[in-house]
Design goal:
Elements: H1 13-18, E1 27-33, E2 39-45, H2 47-56, E3 60-63, E4 68-71, E5 80-87, E6 94-100, H3 123-128
Parallel strand pairs: 1-6
Antiparallel strand pairs: 1-2, 3-4, 5-6
């Protein structure tokens, strides 16, 4: 991030000490619908964005392209109301379970992960241990 980045946030020191950030100080944040398990989107958080998410109950991300914070829903009306926040076992990814209002994807789709499916194996195929040919 640039030198215009705000000073360090008041993120709890015990959380900040555990986070494993990328070279630019960010961690990926996966947004998941809390009641269905549907994966909605991936955003990026730094310490300040995570602090804001934890304290406001609304997902705040760091925009790598605009170099600024953005709160999901402020411009689109498609809010993410935080239900829980967890770190993965390596503390290098955040999982935010949310109640998504409207579309999660900037394209207007419910999820960012439904347009380009690379593999879709049925439960029967998965149980057999053999993937269908050509997939």
């Amino acid at each position: 991030m640039t030198s215009s980045t705000p000073p360090p946030s008041p993120l709890a020191p015990e959380i900040a000490a555990r986070l494993k950030r990328s070279a630019d100080g960010l961690v990926p944040a996966i947004a998941q619908q809390y009641d269905t398990g549907e994966v909605l989107m991936l955003g990026w958080m730094d310490d300040e964005a995570l602090h804001r998410t934890l304290t406001t109950g609304r997902c705040t991300y760091w925009s790598r392209s605009r170099q600024e914070y953005w709160v999901k829903g402020d411009t689109s009306g498609h809010f993410q109301h935080v239900k829980s926040v967890a770190l993965d076992c390596d503390a290098d990814t955040v999982l935010v379970k949310v109640d998504q209002v409207g579309a999660a994807c900037h394209t207007g789709a419910r999820t960012c992960f439904d347009a380009d499916v690379l593999l879709d194996v049925s439960f029967e195929d998965a149980d057999s241990g053999v993937l269908p040919q050509g997939q």
